[in-house]
Design brief:
heterodimer; A: 478 residues; mainly alpha; 2 domains; 0% strand; B: five-stranded parallel β-sheet; two-stranded parallel sheet; globular
């Protein structure tokens, strides 16, 4: 079920009303209802894969309990290793098996040998990369004794499968989400209203920005060989907005929906295209994944506390794994490598932590230096997205080589101007709201209700009028 | 909670009210901006799907105006016809394409086709009235809900760009010239296709066929149902559909004349495929119609 589908438009209000009016007697009933609603939501896509998520959740639930009761560190470690092997094993089989086997066979061709063999005819279960990481973080945190394993299976299953964030995140930590399944939720007006605003924002980002960019992006990327350099640059920039609108839009809808059910999810995006360098970008883009890799991979590997060699190695490992997490293709790996190369100099020269907060919110415009930094960072990110979007490394390289040809200085062949105006207006809104949780968080004491409602009306109208052809969320494939 | 739900309801009501006004305004403006004028010397209107579109070259038949278009359902034909008859008093005869498969359940696919819905709403919204809109919504809810807003966006764009009044009659259809022949491939496909014939009737098609009939009679025009020539293989193949096909004319459309040329003998080179004439066939058929008029085949005029 897509967030931008008619099915979800029916599912959400029905679930909301049942949740608060019928299944609201006690915590257990609330959790059972959320669990069933989540499985219904997931099963709508393909009910067969429910068994996978149930298996994965129950395994980690049992292993968590085992770790809790284990009397030695060695035993705890064994249970943790079982959890890691099982979770990553599932991910490996469903997501990476064919990729590795194909490249294994191809490597023989380098030596003039031909080899053919098994190829799994499987589809990638929706959200497997997300819920696998979520359950992994649970078992690792139980192992590290940061949290106590839960004894209630319903609570745990509901935590893993909570429908707003099940298929494309934010990747939640047990420390944040699990305690919310341990106390009865009470309806809070302001929370629900803010949730609705965030849903509205998410739908706008997805339906108006991402889906309309997608039409142009698909056209440019599929015919890049016949386009001039400036059009390809516009294509790369539009894809930057497409993927931002698509993914952050999904996160906004997920966070907003969760708030309607009285649950707070972590912020996943924080105005990333106003970043002044790549390090800041990664603190603002897909925050839940970045922090996951930081806490469960980068720091355990030694982080930046050891020698320079270890630091360089760790940075490359994290970015390569991050790239591969997105998909089994060399393009993602190169995308990760590019970001590692852009990030590393900042880390080595200790410039990676200089920008923690958003640019002073009282400033109407960025300073000249800031504007140059933001533009340069955005350009680097846009060029790296070419690898992310391309089907193969060779097409990405061809795309970039045409982009940087003399035709870069010709006029781009893009006729649809409306989307550029919409993106510009949206970025202005983001700029004004850059110190807020999200772009539609308004201070009700400062802005009169009539103005707010007119603004909401216009957003809904834009969603209504400017809906592009419905596109699947990009991150569903991960 | 109560306050939350009340506010949502108020917002929704306000949204629906304001947007409805906007939509009504856009439709009104679009209706006034668009003219659908057929030349005054044309007195016969030919309308329907790809069969008449490919068979009748109206540059040969001077008094006939071909407004047919491939993939058109009777619902769309009704939409077009309603407006065209209102604005073109010179039309005294309507010839409606009526082939054997037109009432087949298979035609429902055309109605539910998302691309069709998009075209229908982005280009022809101003032809709808509320009843037609609801009728289409019932048949194709997702297509309507997805594409209806696009029509408003199109209308608003035209408003913002203050496009001048234009004659859009050519967008509705016309003679479709088919070059070459795919007959051999069509025959091969015919041999390997699933033999089971779907005899189920499309109630939606039938409903709008009857509506067209009533509309034409209400406007005091003559209605002729035309079954254009098809390949003998297709003619034979459609045999199971014939009893119902003829019974509809007899029982539901008694005042309409049926001209059945489906069994007209034509050389193989005149066919584009089993169901459609190519430009050679269309030229021959149109010249034949010019010579003999819209009449049924008999021994004296059989080619």
């Amino acid at each position: 079920m897509f967030f931008n589908s008619i099915e979800f438009a029916l599912f959400l209000p029905i679930t909301f009303l049942l949740y608060w009016f019928v299944f609201n007697k006690n915590l257990r009933i609330q959790n059972i209802f959320l669990l069933l609603a989540s499985y219904f939501f997931y099963g709508w896509w393909d009910w067969r894969f429910l068994s996978l998520i149930i298996f994965s959740s129950l395994t980690d639930y049992i292993l968590g309990l085992k770790m809790n009761s284990a009397n030695s560190t060695k035993n705890r470690k064994i249970f943790l290793m079982i959890s890691i092997i099982l979770n990553l094993g599932l991910l490996g089989v469903f997501k990476y098996f064919n990729f590795f086997i194909e490249n294994f066979y191809k490597s023989f061709q380098l030596f003039g040998m031909s080899m053919e063999g098994g190829h799994l005819n499987i589809i990638l279960p929706l959200g497997i990369s997300f819920y696998t990481f979520q359950t992994l973080s649970y078992t690792i945190d139980v192992y590290r004794k940061k949290i106590k394993a839960t004894e209630d299976p319903i609570e745990f299953l509901a935590f893993v499968s909570f429908f707003p964030q099940l298929v494309a995140g934010p990747i939640e930590r047990a420390m944040n989400l699990l305690p919310q399944f341990q106390q009865k939720r009470i309806f809070e007006y302001h929370k629900a209203v803010d949730g609705l605003r965030q849903i509205l924002l998410g739908l706008f980002k997805k339906i108006v920005i991402a889906d309309n960019c997608a039409v142009l992006v698909n056209d440019i990327f599929s015919t890049y060989g016949t386009q001039n350099g400036s059009t390809l640059l516009v294509g790369a920039i539009l894809f930057s907005f497409q993927i931002y609108g698509d993914f952050s839009g999904y996160s906004d809808i997920a966070i907003g929906t969760a708030r309607l059910f009285g649950i707070n999810l972590r912020k996943n995006f924080s105005f990333p295209y106003f970043s002044r360098n790549i390090a800041e970008f990664w603190r603002r883009w897909h925050i839940s994944l970045t922090s996951w890799f930081r806490d469960y991979l980068y720091i355990p590997l030694g982080g930046s506390k050891r020698s320079k060699y270890i630091t360089v190695r760790n940075v490359f490992i994290v970015f390569i794994v991050s790239g591969i997490w997105h998909g089994a293709n060399w393009t993602f790996l190169v995308w990760g490598l590019i970001h590692a190369s852009l990030f590393l100099p900042l880390l080595l020269f200790k410039r990676n932590r200089i920008y923690h907060k958003a640019i002073d919110p009282s400033k109407r415009f960025p300073g000249i230096i800031e504007a140059i930094q933001i533009s340069f960072t955005f350009l680097m990110i846009s060029i790296s997205w070419i690898f992310f979007r391309s089907d193969s490394l060779s097409s990405a390289i061809s795309y970039i080589s045409i982009l940087f040809s003399p035709s870069l200085f010709s006029f781009p062949a893009i006729l649809d101007n409306n989307i550029f105006i919409i993106i510009f207006c949206f970025m202005v809104l983001e700029w004004i709201q850059r110190d807020k949780e999200h772009a539609l968080e308004f201070d009700s004491t400062k802005i009169p209700k009539v103005i707010r409602w007119i603004f909401y009306y216009l957003i809904v109208l834009f969603i209504f009028l400017y809906q592009g052809d419905q596109q699947e969320f990009i991150y569903f494939q991960f | 909670m109560k306050l939350f739900l009340i506010k949502i309801c108020i917002f929704c009501l306000l949204f629906i009210s304001v947007t409805s006004l906007l939509i009504a305004f856009v439709i009104y403006r679009e209706k006034n901006r668009t003219s659908l004028i057929i030349p005054l010397d044309k007195t016969i209107l030919l309308i329907g799907d790809s069969h008449p579109a490919c068979s009748v070259n109206d540059s040969i038949l001077k008094n006939t105006f071909n407004l047919s278009k491939g993939g058109t359902t009777y619902f769309e034909t009704y939409l077009k016809l309603k407006r065209v008859l209102e604005t073109n008093k010179n039309i005294n005869t309507v010839i409606l394409g009526y082939s054997y498969g037109d009432l087949s359940k298979y035609r429902d696919k055309w109605i539910k086709d998302p691309a069709k819905a998009k075209k229908l709403f982005t280009s022809w919204l101003y032809l709808f009235d509320l009843q037609l809109f609801l009728s289409y919504l019932y048949e194709n809810p997702s297509g309507t809900l997805i594409n209806f807003p696009k029509s408003i966006r199109y209308g608003m764009n035209s408003m913002l760009h203050s496009r001048p009044k234009e004659n859009k009659i050519s967008e509705f259809g016309g003679y479709h010239k088919l070059n070459g022949s795919k007959l051999r491939i069509a025959k091969e496909k015919f041999l390997i296709r699933d033999k089971s014939f779907d005899l189920k009737v499309s109630e939606f098609q039938l409903k709008y066929l009857i509506k067209i009939y009533k509309l034409v009679l209400a406007k005091n025009k003559k209605l002729i149902l035309l079954n254009t020539p098809i390949h003998p293989i297709a003619e034979k193949d459609h045999a199971p559909l014939k009893p119902f096909y003829f019974s509809v004319v007899k029982d539901k459309l008694p005042k309409a004349a049926l001209i059945n040329h489906s069994n007209m003998y034509l050389p193989e080179e005149y066919f584009s495929d089993l169901d459609h004439l190519n430009f050679k066939g269309a030229k021959f058929y149109s010249e034949w119609l010019l010579k003999f008029g819209y009449v049924n085949l008999n021994s004296s005029n059989k080619p």
